[in-house]
Amino acid sequence: MPAGFTPIKMSDQDFMKGFRSGYERFTTQPRTQILVDDTIYHFLSAIIADESVSNREKAGFLSGWYAGMYQLTFSFEPVLAPLAKVGG
Fold this sequence. Notes:
Layout: E1 5-10, H1 13-28, H2 37-49, H3 55-69, E2 73-78
Parallel strand pairs: 1-2
Helix pairs in contact: 1-3
């Protein structure tokens, strides 16, 4: 496996949707200023507080956002059996 490449096995559509969304958000959003801890905190807090999105989609979004920030490359691999859902 090439360095910096991570295969991700997913069976949860909400998580996958959130991951792609978070990754695209970070990689396509123009950077007009340096990211500072306070900006990151408030951005992530707003995502977590959004009650219109499932917890699994939020977790995917945050994971994808960080993957974009660290410039990770990935591919999605389907999982035949769904993973057990914990929480929302």
